[in-house]
Write a structure and sequence with these properties.
This protein has a single domain, classed as Nitrilase/N-carbamoyl-D-aminoacid amidohydrolase (4-Layer Sandwich), CATH 3.60.110. It contains seven helices and 14 strands. A hairpin with a 5-residue loop joins β4 and β5. Pfam families: CN_hydrolase. This is Carbon-nitrogen hydrolase family protein.
Length: 265
Amino acid sequence: MNVKLFLAQMEPILYDKQANLEKMHRFMQQAAQGQADLILFPELCLTGYFTRDRTAELSEDETGSSIQQVADWARQFKLMTVFGFPERRDGLIYNSACLINHDGSILGTYQKIHLWDEESKYFSSGESFHVWDTEMGRIGIMICYDTEFPETARILALKGAEIILAPTANMSPFEHAQSVQIQCRAVENQVFVATTNRIGTEESTRFFGESSVADPFGKHVLLGNQEEKGYLVQIDLTDLNMARRFPKYLDDRRPELYANLAECD
C-alpha cells in the first residue's frame, strides 16, 4: 500500500491563530493538489511555540473553532491531517497533536508526554500512548522531545504502529541529533517515522526545519532544508514486511530482563 505524506514545514506567527490557520489552509491546498493522503504540521503550529502566560487563553478543546475549521478543510480536501496545538482537556492544558480523518472526523488527540525545559510551567504531561487504526495503516504520534526517548517509539511499535508521526518545534544546535534520532526510531522499531519541524525565530530561539521521513531500514526517504516549504513523499507500507524479515527486533526482545529499566532513577 502506498501512502503520500505531505510535510508542511511552516513558520507559525506567535499568538496569531488566524494567520496560522490561513497558512495551514494554503499548505492543505498544496497537499491536495499533489494528491497527498496525509498532511503533517509542526508542534504548536496553531499558536507559535513561546505562548508562555497566554497558553491557557489560546488553548482549545476538540470543539474549538480552530480545530473545527481544520476539520472542515480536511473534509474538503479529503486529507488526513495532524497538527499541533495547546489543548484544553479536563481542566488542564496540554501540548497536543490532533489527528483528523480525511472525512473531517476527529480521530483523537495525543498529549505530549516528555516536556522540554520550561514547557512544564505551562503544560501538563500526557499519560498514555495512542495508536489509531486508519485507512492508511496504524498511526502513532509523538511530539518533538518525545522522539529523543527510545521508549516512546518502541511502545508505539509494540502497540502496532506502522507509521509514527512527530510534529516538532526543534531548535539549533540540534540539527544532527534530530536527523539521527528519526532514523534510529525508524530502524530500531522497523516502522516509518516522519517529522515536520517548524522554522523561524521566536525570542532568541531559531527553529531549523529539516523535516524528514525515515523508512523501516533507517534510511532517509526525505531530508528537507531550512526554508518554509511543503514536501511530498510517497512511502510503501510493504517495506514493513521486508524490513521485519531479519533482524526481528520486536520478536527478539527479552522484556523479562528489562524490569530494572523502569526502576532505575
